[in-house]
Design goal:
The chain is α+β, with helices and mostly antiparallel strands. It has 7 helices and 32 strands. Strands 10, 11, 12, 27, 28, 29, 30, 31 and 32 form a 9-stranded antiparallel beta sheet that branches. The chain has a 6-stranded antiparallel beta barrel with strand order 13-22-25-24-23-26. Helix 1 (3-23) packs antiparallel against helix 7 and helix 4 (220-234) runs antiparallel to helix 5 (243-255). The model is unreliable at 20-45, 88-103 and 470-474 (pLDDT under 50).
């Protein structure tokens, strides 16, 4: 066995020992007078005797520093020797010569404690006096299986939960801006050249209702069309009205912008009004007012802009990586910065078809009811979209996954103190759970606490097996 191999194995032994000490809730540093962290000396009043050869040296001040040869600290203190009987293992060792554990597990053979390619059918010691490590029959079937005694399970606090199918909600968060729905905005203008005789007492911000008179308007072309309509109504041919001419006269008034109620009023009066009462086209707030008493208005001039705030838009920018999670119809919680403690409920209406090249985000349009009128244009809001769909997927608690960056591992509880690390592929995360795409099956139990200790022991055993195979191949 090369010095390099010995150094690697020594490192694994130290790591496994440290993890075991942490799992028990205290460090058991051996000193010439006893064990630090213990309640006190043994019943006899004497520290337990140490036996076996010195296997390594540790820092006298309790720091995690070790050496395979005698050494001194920077302060000149000697490193303390650790003998074979003082070393600890994550698993409880069976009594020497036993072939069964609890009447169930049988020892298949014993392997060299330092990883050398040497095995024995019976218990024995190596040239340094260290006991050979037993390999059980169930471990031979699957070399990654770790067995922990009931006492160790209780000390380490190992807990497991079953893998189950559940609906996984993955919240996607973004910042949005409240905007008006352009389909709910109306501009009041004339289709003819006219004069505004008077304007109602409305200012910007006032609320108006559909049909309410905004202003009174006079226009020569409007009066001419109204006179033609009245003339057709008064004309009788054979005791009746020419329906075709009547429809043409009425259509001219409609083309000039008059609504049905104004045309009906002219028909009932059978006279041409001097001015026409111009109504509001919809309910809403007056966003802009340009009309002034006595002003001359050209065709197309904006006189009023009216906005209905009962439903508003929230335009949110979603990161490119989250686009696949967003679909129209998903529920959304919107929290305006003006009302951080209140959540407004809406839903995704549209995902715009183009990305913003500078920010690499996609714009999402959210429709939000606003019956109280609390939401105002250009407000900023925090958006949380309940993505993930309604289908059930295989999930496990997030704490059950050991994520090393390159791979993800779950520890499967096989019962009777037996555990098996498995590499898994994960998907979405949300609500404390993670989607499992492969690696474990439904209803299998996975370890949720102290799983890193089991994984560390598994890695140590795997390294020893790999070293055995490497030495044997030389």
């Amino acid at each position: 066995m090369t010095r390099r191999h010995f150094a690697i194995l020594l490192g694994f032994v130290v790591v496994a020992a440290s993890l075991a000490w942490l799992a028990e809730g205290r460090f058991k540093w051996v000193t010439p007078t006893g064990t630090l962290g213990d309640a006190g000396p043994s019943i006899s009043g004497k520290p337990p005797a140490t036996t076996g050869p010195i296997i390594y040296y540790r820092d006298p001040d309790g720091r995690p520093a070790y050496s395979s040869t005698p050494k001194k600290t920077s302060a000149g203190k000697d490193y303390l020797p650790v003998r074979a009987s003082e070393d600890v293992s994550f698993e409880d060792k069976p009594p020497a010569g036993s072939a069964k554990i609890g009447g169930e597990r049988r020892v298949r053979f014993y392997r060299h404690p330092m990883g050398l390619p040497d095995t024995s059918p019976v218990p024995k010691k190596d040239e340094m006096g260290m006991d050979y490590v037993p390999v059980y029959e169930d471990e031979a079937e699957n070399g990654t299986t770790i067995t922990i005694s009931p006492g160790k399970l209780q000390k380490t606090g190992v807990r497991s939960e079953p893998v189950q199918r559940r609906t996984l909600s993955v919240p996607v968060r973004a910042t949005g801006r409240i905007d008006f729905d352009p389909r709910r905005i109306s501009i009041v203008s004339l289709r003819f050249e006219g004069f505004i005789e008077s304007v109602g007492k409305f200012a910007e911000g006032d609320y108006v209702r559909k049909g309410q008179t905004l202003m009174r308007v006079y226009g020569p072309n409007l009066s001419s069309a109204a006179a033609e309509y009245v003339a057709v109504l008064n004309m009788r041919r054979g005791g009746g009205i020419d329906a075709q001419r009547l429809e043409g006269a009425k259509r001219r008034l409609v083309n000039l912008g008059l609504d049905e109620s104004a045309i009906a009023a002219i028909g009932r009066a059978r006279s041409v009004p001097r001015v026409i009462a111009w109504p509001a086209p919809q309910d809403g707030h007056v966003l802009e007012r340009a009309a002034i008493n006595g002003m001359r208005a050209a065709p197309g001039d904006m006189l009023f802009r009216i906005v209905d705030h009962s439903l508003v838009w929230v335009l949110a920018d979603i990161a490119e990586r989250d686009i696949a999670l967003i679909k129209p119809g998903q529920k959304v919680d919107v929290r305006p910065r003006a009302y951080p403690d209140r959540a407004f409920k809406g839903q995704v209406a549209l995902i715009y078809p183009h990305l913003n090249m500078e920010t690499r985000t996609a714009r999402v349009r959210i429709e939000l009811p606003n019956p109280d009128g609390l939401l105002r244009g250009d407000m900023y809001a925090e958006v949380e979209i309940a993505a993930g769909g309604n289908e059930k997927v295989l999930t496990a608690p997030e704490s059950a996954i050991i994520d090393t960056g390159k791979r993800q591992v779950a520890i499967v509880d096989k019962g009777e103190g037996r555990f098996e690390p498995r590499e898994v592929k994960i998907g979405r995360r949300g609500e404390g759970f993670v989607e499992i795409k492969s690696g474990v099956s439904e209803n299998e139990r996975v370890v949720t606490t102290a799983n890193f200790l089991i994984d560390a022991e598994s890695n140590l055993k795997a390294a020893l097996r790999a070293l055995d195979q490497g030495e044997a191949g030389k």
